[in-house]
Amino acid sequence: MEQLKKNTSLSREYGQFISQFDWRYFMTCRHRYKLSEKTIRKWTDKLFKASLSISRIYWVMERDKADMTSKHVHMLLECSEEITQNQLKTALNTSVGDFDELRSKTAVSNYVTKFISSHNIEYDIVDAKS
């Protein structure tokens, strides 16, 4: 029980930290092949190079509930211009499921950090290279 409280507290605190950034968009990506950290790092590079005005990306890779061998990625994007779902699909050449402009940074930040203290969760904040 004590460990559960610590994990919940860590997730909440990290959610508060993430909510301090100027995120504009939330998206969820899936891939037809097995996802790895290397794949996500390639995706972040592609997004920065796609001239979409993205300055920072937070990503977290989680296991799917329905299939524990499969994973998906949530991303928060910080950018100065409007982006469409089609632009992201084209840049990444993968399925972009959920995509929306943020209405509540706090709610979305808590959502993307809900499993941050679980095993096999990978995440990062990446800034565009100047």
Structure description:
With 130 residues, the chain is α+β, with helices and mostly antiparallel strands. It has one domain (2-127): Alpha-Beta Plaits. It has helices spanning 2-18, 37-49, 85-92, 105-112, and strands at residues 25-30, 54-63, 71-79, 95-101, 122-127. A 5-stranded antiparallel β-sheet has the order 4-1-3-2-5, covered by helices on one side. A hairpin with a 7-residue loop joins strand 2 (54-63) and strand 3 (71-79). Helix 1 crosses helix 4 (105-112). The radius of gyration is 14 Å and the shape is globular. 26% of the residues are buried. The model has no long low-confidence stretch (mean pLDDT 86).
Features:
35% helix; Alpha-Beta Plaits; globular; alpha+beta; 130 residues; five-stranded antiparallel β-sheet
